[in-house]
Amino acid sequence: MYCRLIDDKVQRRDFMKKLVVIFSVTLILLNCSDKKGTGVDSNPVISFSPPIIQLETGEQGQISLDFHDFNADIFAVSMQISCDSSIASFNESTDFTSGDFFGQDAVIFVRNENDTIYLTLSLIQGTTPVKGSGTLANFNFTGNSAGSTTLIPSENQLYFYDEDGNDIEILNLTIESAAIEVQ
Known about the structure:
single chain; alpha+beta; Immunoglobulin-like; elongated
């Protein structure tokens, strides 16, 4: 009987050791896991290049929408960009191209309507998400009438997604505008 009590204590002690090890490993893994899309160690920027273009009425000029220093793995992005189309506009069918950030095989939805550019780009399912810097899109604007308009993505209508379709929170994001001046 005495031996059996000792065996039970040893088994319980071994079981408790295993439980402590499992619990410790779980805590370590949870604390070391990468939180998707937090961008904590960078200061990502969305900007336009060049930041100002000057056009004559009827003249075209290209402006690029660029991403800089994105550390999150991005599979898709959706945004709205404001632009006064009475001053400068573009034809979404012929005056838009995808940049190198997602590449030429990206799925693209672009619509220019009511002074808002609706833009969504996504990688094809099975493609590895991207991070870093690059050009998201290129626009060829035509000067329509004298004046100035500002291009700026709406912070409230800017969404990033991972490969599972989950929202990615991008911290410390800076959004820079551009100007189109028509003479």
